[in-house]
Write a structure and sequence with these properties.
α2 packs antiparallel against α3 (about 115-125) and α3 runs antiparallel to α4 (about 125-144). The protein is mostly helical and about 140 residues long. The termini are far apart. Helices cover about 95% and strands about 0% of the residues. The chain folds into two domains: about 1-80; about 80-144.
Length: about 140
């Protein structure tokens, strides 16, 4: 009788415990899937956070560069000495041109000399014309 009861108990246990074990294994698989899914989500969140930090860093660098360019632009826009020297530069340019025209006309009238003196007058300005005048005076003394 004991053997019979023991056999019934074992059979009943298998009938109740085996489905319970199968359910527990399914829950364990589901729990492992949830843990894996949660791990993947946390990895994605960490990647997003890293990208956000990189973008913030890039934005900060861009802001610094933009601020530097603004400062440079402001420096170039505010040049009071530029306005002071512009008329002087224009006067020097006009003088160079007028001196070259005078040398050209003098060479044509006298019929001597070369176009090289015009280039020297344009490049050197008044010192070049003074050298031309000294050479011309020397030529005038030779012809006398």
């Amino acid at each position: 009788m004991r053997k019979l009861l023991f056999t019934i108990f074992i059979a009943a246990s298998f009938n109740y415990f085996l489905p319970a074990l199968a359910i527990a294994e399914e829950h364990e698989d589901i729990d492992m899937e949830r843990i894996q899914h949660r791990f993947e989500i946390e990895e994605q969140e960490m990647e997003l956070e890293q990208r956000r930090r990189e973008m913030e860093h890039d934005n900060q660098l861009r802001e610094l560069e933009l601020e530097k360019h603004r400062a440079q632009l402001k420096h170039f826009q505010h040049r009071p000495h530029k306005d002071k020297f512009m008329p002087l530069i224009l006067i020097c340019l006009v003088v160079h041109i007028l001196v070259a025209v005078w040398v050209y006309q003098d060479i044509r009238v006298r019929g001597t000399g070369s176009g090289l003196w015009i280039v020297i007058a344009l490049l050197a300005g008044l010192p070049g014309v003074l050298v031309y005048a000294v050479v011309r005076l020397g030529d005038a003394k030779k012809s006398d």
